[in-house]
Amino acid sequence: MHFGVFSVGDVTTDPTTGRTPTEGERIKAMVTIAKAVEDAGLDVFATGEHHNPPFVPSSPTTMLGFIAAQTERILLSTATTLITTNDPVKIAEDYAMLQHLADGRVDLMMGRGNTGPVYPWFGKDIRQGIDLALENYALLRKLWDEDVVNWQGKFRTPLHGFTATPRPFDGVAPFVWHGSIQSPEIAEQAAFYGDGFFHNNIFWPISHTKRMVNFYRERFEAHGHGPADQAIVGLGGQVFARPNSQDAVREFRPYFDNAPVYGGGPSLEAFSRETPLTVGSPQQIIDRYATMREHVGDYQRQLFLIDHAGLPLKTVLEQIEILGSEIVPVLRREMDAKRPAHVPDAPTHASLLAARGGVAEDAPAAVVVDPYTGTRAEDDNESFSSLLNAGISK
């Protein structure tokens, strides 16, 4: 199982000091955090993608490429790659380039984003968000899977004899997670392709998360990718730890009370009861997150949001150290021990390459197949578009 940290890259005033970091300081802090994630023995660092203040990560591949040059082991991912407003051609080429620079240590999470104004900024209509996500991802798969692409759709100009460059590293495209909070269409999309489904449940009760994950698992099996419990699932989370739980609550409360995403809403105690936010001792966090599999089944990725709400970098680095030394080793041990042998590990470039038979980097590109069944989602008897036209409700 993979454990890691994701950042939304917010620039928020520290309510205890009144100081607001500069954009440059925040960007460099994210790089420092990523290196600390590797040093702490965690597996993944993921950055969001935003194009509006107070967020800074507008160019994830630039940041991840810079981090790749300074790390050796961690997987570099996105917490959101905006499939709706980015050109699929640019995504295909940017992330293949990043694969080569990082020796394959790359995957990405597709999402529609949660900022409405971003659509017109990039010439798109938010009312077409789902349709954009579906068409753009279908084209992205084609660009990665095929050397020469002929394509025509609704939202961009046609492609005739087009080849995206560079080709995916070792002929294997990055593994894709589809991130969604409440859209069953996106869970269906992930299931159709046999991709991963990431439920960023940081603002939602576990009952809602369970419904979304179970729907994805049911559809994954229906599309012939394997039993439902072999579907690839990831979850978000939020934690703040100190040796003494009372100290953790006292230190974190001003950040919670004043953060733009929390302020004026439920109390810290109410939010902690209703969502995965856990503020307390390392053992309290272990106890809370060890129960997640009881709700969603055995899953492959757990990412924590810990660098938001104005928390100073020093504090964030302390949180990473606690995660790496006291929390994650216990969770990893417990979850790996309980996971049945037939449930797959989190996909990596190495595992995807092995499923392809170890194709060398300079070998001709081939159509990427599902790493668990050896079939293409496109070969499913019931097409994805017909499923959507019939309507998805759950």
Tell me what you see in this structure.
It is built from 14 helices and 13 strands. With 394 residues, the chain is an alpha/beta fold. The strands form three sheets. A nine-stranded parallel beta sheet has the order 3-2-1-13-10-9-8-5-4, covered by helices on one side. A hairpin with a 7-residue loop joins strand 6 (149-151) and strand 7 (159-162). Helix 1 runs parallel beside helix 12, helix 3 (88-101) packs across helix 5 and helix 6 packs parallel to helix 7. It is globular and about 60 Å long. The model is unreliable at 362-394 (pLDDT under 50).
The averaged pLDDT comes out at 89
Strand order in space, largest sheet: 3-2-1-13-10-9-8-5-4
Number of helices, counting only DSSP H or I runs of 4 residues or more: 14
For the report, how would you describe the main beta sheet?
Answer: 9 strands, parallel
User: Beta fraction of the residues?
Assistant: 5-15%
Assembly state: single chain
Helix content: 40-55%
Overview features:
nine-stranded parallel β-sheet; 14 helices; 41% helix; 394 residues; 13 strands; 13% strand; alpha/beta; disordered C terminus; two-stranded antiparallel sheet
Write a compact overview of the structure shown.
With 394 residues, the protein is an alpha/beta fold.
Topology summary:
Layout: E1 2-7, H1 23-39, E2 44-47, H2 60-68, E3 75-78, E4 81-82, H3 88-101, E5 107-111, H4 118-121, H5 129-145, E6 149-151, E7 159-162, E8 175-179, H6 184-193, E9 196-199, H7 206-222, E10 233-235, E11 239-241, H8 245-258, H9 268-274, E12 278-280, H10 282-289, H11 292-296, E13 301-305, H12 313-338, H13 349-355, H14 384-390
Parallel strand pairs: 1-2, 1-13, 2-3, 4-5, 5-8, 8-9, 9-10, 10-13, 11-12
Antiparallel strand pairs: 6-7
